[in-house]
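Instructor's aside before we start: the two examples that follow are unrelated to each other. I chose them only because their records fit on one page, so don't look for a connection. First example below.
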Amino acid sequence: MTSRTSQDSSAGRRAAPALTVWIYESALGATAAEVRLKTLRSRGAVEVHDAITVSWMPGSHRPLIGHLRHEKSTPYPRASVLAVLVGLIFVPPAAGVAPEAHLADLAERLVGTGIDRTFLEDMKAQLHPESSALLVLSGDADLDVVRPVIERGLARGDVVLMHAQMPPGAPEILRAAVLDLKAHGA
């Protein structure tokens, strides 16, 4: 497996907001990632705004979304922004709309978040039946602590890592965009 990064954040010890997607080639792989994330959070190494697991069981037509429990309050207490985003990625496009156009429209709505069309297309292509993923919308992260945990998974070859570095304020833009799309039935 490989690592895909839309923008590299290795320039310093602390990272700005980011969307990280850990994709596994098994429907239960994200469960192990969830344990790793909880360990990082308990060490104070990462500030989690939102996190979900996505598991695509054999025979299912769509992936199942699981919500991770937040140990303390987050800026997003009600709806999971990431659950809505995954739902928007995998919802069948409206009649007469090509799947590529659907993702292009979604990417256009996410301008300013650091999440582009290529990122969305790669994520959709990597998630398929019998795979799973952990999606984490994070704030501040201690890269000296987080990096070795991620690198171990990459070294084992059991994870594809996707990472979108986000500008300041992007999590709020993402939340507004996906909730607006959901409200309008997009």
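Example two begins here.
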Amino acid sequence: MSVSVSARNIGPIGTAEFTLRRLNVFIGPNNTGKSVFATVIHAAFQPLLGQYYPPVSQLRRLVETKGQEALPFDETKSNDFLVRVLQAGADLRLDTIPKDLEQFLSRQVQDNLQNWGESQLTAELERCFGAPLSEIRRGRTTGAISIRSENPQWQLSIEITGSGARSEIVTPPDLSHLLALLVSSRTPREAARRRSLPLEAARRRHLQLSEHFLPYEVAENLFTLCFHEFPRRSRYLPAARSGLLQGHKALAGFLISRSSLAGIRDLQIPALSGVVAEFLSNLVTVDQRQLGEYRTAAKQLEADVLKGEVQLAPTPGGSPEIHFVQQKKDFPLHRTSSMVSEVAPVVIYLRHLLRRDDLLIIEEPEAHLHPKSQVIFAQVLVQLTNRGARVLLTTHSEFFLQQLNNAILADRVDHEGISSAGMLPNARVSSKNVGAYLFIDRKTGGNVAAPLEVTSDGGISEAGFVSVAESLYDQTIQLGRLAEKN
């Protein structure tokens, strides 16, 4: 995985650059930009919403109307090459591509990537922040957000000024690399063997190619492959989950009570950021019949942290209501502790929403949790990274960070050793799969997200907490000496 997101002059951030790994940790003081940067990352990793060029059916009509000259390449030579792609697979010599087809595909992919930045990415940023892009800049400076992929290699940057945003392709995608990815997929080979199909037919089906106008359909596949190493989608669990859950029913009730005035009066509704609205919407619309592959992790949290079960009860309005069941007693969420309200949404996301290759962003997972529960929660999140999910968390907890460090150290220990140390099975992670960042409060020039060293024997540097611990220790010594004088 080698996908990076950087931000300059966004919110309180002066500069920040992030490379996605299996486990990602943001630490640092309050109001230094951790949530702002996490929101930028969340917006960048949303699924593609659709095509960014005319669909194949429209192109067919264009050709039928204007004739073969409407095609910007030699159709016969191009189709011959693409048939060889289907036949040869990864053994194909990519330098045999016709020049006019190469220019066409390169231009299509670049145009689509440019349009993705100017349409979907900018729209997602505004939705997630709940504000125009010009308002998320740091003061009156020019802001910038950059997305970079290494496999395949490309980079796109969005410059944000007071008048709007402009997208620019800094490094265009390499067509040879994209074609190599296109033909090297193992999926067609597996499908051919399973269904007793010729490999060419399996590749054609995998690429969703029709008999005609293959270049346009290949261009669509190549554009999609630009996001080859991106998460499938991002799921964001904001901070203060207990308060949001307590307030969402009141908000829903307000909207229902005012709905009869729609079209009669100009209704004013409370403004929510996109990540908060998305969080509440997911909980209101979740399908409790749909269980995902991380339901065992949800059960682990219920058993070891909540000591009870999170259940979704149907309501007359159709949206489920969250209940907590403990010792055969049923409690609506508003009658439970803040700890239950904080963890219950995580249980629901793991049980019903999170899928393999998703990115799960959790702000302050330690909130309202006893230290013993924090270390269990940290181990469950590490387990997720070993089962195909990616995790990004922001934390202020030294206990949480220490448990993550123990998970890194555990990667050098066998399974029996991990069990004897009192850790959950497979709660281990390689230091190579961990990225950590310390957000530093700068009085001028904006705050900085500084990457922290992560080693197999020392884990994540605790620079953000050590200074506080040292200050407290010095204070204790000073107070003790002063007390002895009295």
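Residues 1-42+372-486 form one domain.
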